[in-house]
Structures are given as C-alpha cells and as structure tokens.
Write a structure and sequence with these properties.
Helix content is 74%, strand content 2%. By secondary structure, the chain is mainly α. It has a two-stranded antiparallel sheet.
Length: 295
C-alpha cells in the first residue's frame, strides 16, 4: 500500500504541473469535451500540438484516478481498523471525479478564470489529503496527544493559515495575469495584476518569517518531532521566493510560472506534514514518561 500511496501523491502533484502546462502553452481549448473532436476521443492529425498537451493532461488524470482506486482497494482490507485512511482514500477519489467534471465545464465555459482558480485549489486540496495519508499511514491508530508546547502548535497553525492566504492571493494574481489558457480568451478576473503581485508578496514574506521563527524555536528547545518538517518547509519557501522574484521581474515567463505553481503544491504538502507532526500516539508519550521516571 505504501507504494500505491506514494504513486498517488506524486501523480496528484504531477497533474498540477500538466494542468499548468495546458494553461501556459495556450492549450486550454485544444480539445473539445467530452471528446477531443466531435468524432474522436483522441487528437487527430489535423489538430495542433495544443490538442496533444490538453489530451495529455486528460490522460494523466485517468492514471490519477486509477492510483486512487488502487489505494482504496488496499485500505479496504483493514478499513474498520483505520477509518481515517479509508476516509482520506475516498476523499481523494471523489476529488479526482470532481476535477474531471470541473475540467469539462472549463472547456464548455471557455476557461473562465474563477473556475480555473477553483480547479487549481481543488488540486492543492487533494495534494494535502494525499500527503496526510502518507503521514497517517506510518502512524499507529489510537488516541493522540500534542507532541509540542501549546504555543508552538498555535504558531504552526498560524503559519498554515498564512500559507493558505498566500496561495489564495497567488491564485487571484494568476487569474488577473496574461496567461488565460488560450489566445482567444481575454476574460480575466478583473483585478489589477501588478497590484496583486505586491499584495501577494506580503503574506509570502510573513510565511517565511514565521517558518524561520519555528526553525529557531525547534532548534533552541529541542523539538525533533517538527524540526525536519520545518527545515523542509523553509527550504521549499526559499526556492519559491526565488522563482517568484524571477518571474515578477521577467514579465511572467510561462516556465517560471509553471514551476511556481508546482512548488505551491509541494509547499502545501510540506505544511500538511508539519501540522500532522504536532501530535503523536498517546502510548508513545506514556512510554517516554516512563523512561524519564525510571532514569
């Protein structure tokens, strides 16, 4: 099951990348819906490379759904014992079905920017659930309790909220920018893209400052439960900031925007892992207390 869960997670991140490629290469209307042409499920020789890119994204979505089904099959063997994994597996599968429907609606409604934004946000949510599945899969069932001081836990939750705000403003910025998904689509969300670029940077830098604070605290107070997760989150943020500055100063080159989109998904996954590290099985805490008492 571990391999299937990892494959599912990687594919959830990959579909963010291919979806971004569809938009950034102006291939959003490369295929019709539900077929690629009125007479063919697949791209035809008469169509341009845009249809191949769009169909490639659709093809990958099939494998995303297949991986989700495989995970459900594995989890079904012990669903009564691990209702948490069973629930998350079905959430991922339901999300894949939702994404397929939204993708079709996007084509029908000519890539409306608000619907594109919703499509992307659902993808990030599925990445988060897939990451949560990986973490919980490696932990025993049963009661859990806080593994870090209350103040640290609150700071982590504030950090996750600021990340969500950063992503939301970033999505609005992209929806106001030049990459509509097709040269014929001129409808944008109506916001000033230049202004939003600056607004987007505010929570982004706040996120970096919060994560740096968490790193200092975890190193100074000895919190191995979250230290590695904080380091991973901080490293991804540094790369994301560099990419964001590059794209903002170079007229939003498509490749840089695509990398920025994928890194946002990886950031969401890393933050999910961090939040789940705030708690540990209650028996582990009891065992540690027993060891301290004996010594």
């Amino acid at each position: 099951m571990k391999i299937a869960a990892w494959v599912s997670f990687v594919l959830e991140v990959a579909i963010v990348g291919t979806g971004g490629a569809v938009r950034l290469t102006d291939s959003g209307l490369g295929c019709e819906w539900p077929l690629c042409t009125p007479d063919s499920l697949f791209p035809t020789a008469e169509q341009s490379y845009h249809s191949l890119i769009e169909f490639g994204n659709r093809g990958l979505s099939f494998f995303v759904g297949l991986a989700a089904i495989v995970v459900i099959v594995f989890v079904s063997r012990f669903r009564s014992a691990r209702r948490d994994l069973w629930t998350m597996a079905w959430i991922v599968f339901a999300g894949v079905l939702l994404q397929a429907a939204v993708g079709g609606i996007l084509v029908i409604f000519a890539l409306h920017p608000n619907m594109v934004a919703f499509h992307y946000l659902v993808s990030l949510a599925l990445v988060a659930v897939s990451a949560a599945f990986l973490v919980r899969m490696g932990q025993p069932r049963g009661a859990r309790e806080r593994a870090v001081p209350k103040g640290v836990a609150i700071l982590v939750h504030v950090t996750s909220f600021v990340l969500a705000l950063t992503v939301l403003v970033g999505v609005l910025t992209t929806g106001a920018g030049p990459h509509s998904g097709d040269p014929e689509v001129t409808l944008r969300n109506g916001f000033d893209a230049t202004l939003l670029e600056h607004v987007h940077s505010w929570p982004a830098y706040a996120l970096f400052a919060l994560t740096l604070t968490l790193l200092v605290i975890s190193l100074a107070t000895g919190l191995p439960e979250i230290r590695s997760a904080v380091i991973a989150l901080l490293a991804i943020e540094l790369v994301q900031i560099a990419v964001g500055l590059y794209q903002a100063r170079n007229a939003l080159p498509p490749l840089a925007v695509g990398v920025h989109m994928v890194l946002a998904a990886v950031l969401v996954a890393a933050c999910t892992v961090l939040v789940l590290r705030l708690k540990r099985p209650a028996e582990s805490a009891a065992a540690e207390a027993a060891v301290r008492t004996a010594s």
